[in-house]
Amino acid sequence: MHVKDARIGEQNRVSRPWILHHDAWTEGLWKGIRESVSEYLEREDVQRHLGSHNLKSSWMLCANLYFPFREDPGRQLVAAFLRSRVSKEIEAVERIELEYAEPAPLDPQTLLGEPETGKRGANQTSPDVAFLVRLGNGKSGLILTESKLAEHSFYACSGRKKSVENPDRSRCMDWPRIQADPIGQCWQMNWEQEGRPNRKYWEHVQFSEEGKASLRRCPAATAGYQLFRQQALAEAIAASGQYDLVASCVAYDARNDDLIHSLRSTGVDDFATGWGRLFGGKAKFATWTHQEWVAWVRTHDSSGVWGDWLEYVEARYGYGKAAL
Q: Is the pLDDT of residue 310 over 80?
């Protein structure tokens, strides 16, 4: 990918050819959304991802792949795609939001006990992109989606870091012990220090019989922390009755085998087919690959509106006709 600003940037004190200078981060966006994304982040008070100047950023991938479709006819394409991947009940997409959070009392602070200093995009569970949808008979739905590109996992639980002084990290790996008393055993639920509130994740999740039998450790412990938090958020919102359909979803790159199998030692060989079977709550779990989404646009863009965008994502990410 060619960029106008040739300065090499840094991320975590490391320089790489694919890391832009921090001030040139918008050059990693498709030209059709460079101004609108910046305006959106400022208007909605959304914290831009700290790695947005990295051309391998999954946050920027998410913006490039889904933000351009916020208006019709783009929303019609998204609605048809979500109808095929998430629920046949979906009739229309009304809003597409980055780093989404519901207003109180369905916000992450109230539902999950996360810090009051959190905001969309920082220090709270904010799905990368959310689709607010209309169902039949006047019903509504919320599709919370985590976007991944090159990540190797969904990250380890912050409560297991050595720096937080968890008194017994071994319990996270003892599923029978966790299953018997999740709230009592989880350090996230009992780690109140320097004004840090205890989290409420376990208060919202329910495990299926398959989940109880197949898990080998806490599902959030070593590679599923983001998925677990989003699952808890989706279940909490679903339980409120505000929406008739709530789904926790993952959009990912089909070539990323490390991510796909990142939960194998936890008891889930393939997160796309196995994660949803762990739970027995109201929220739905669904996945799709970015390649499937781009292929959908290519197939259904009968008027050629998205030709320039299709060329961009093929050159930028390799999502061409032969990507599937």
A: yes
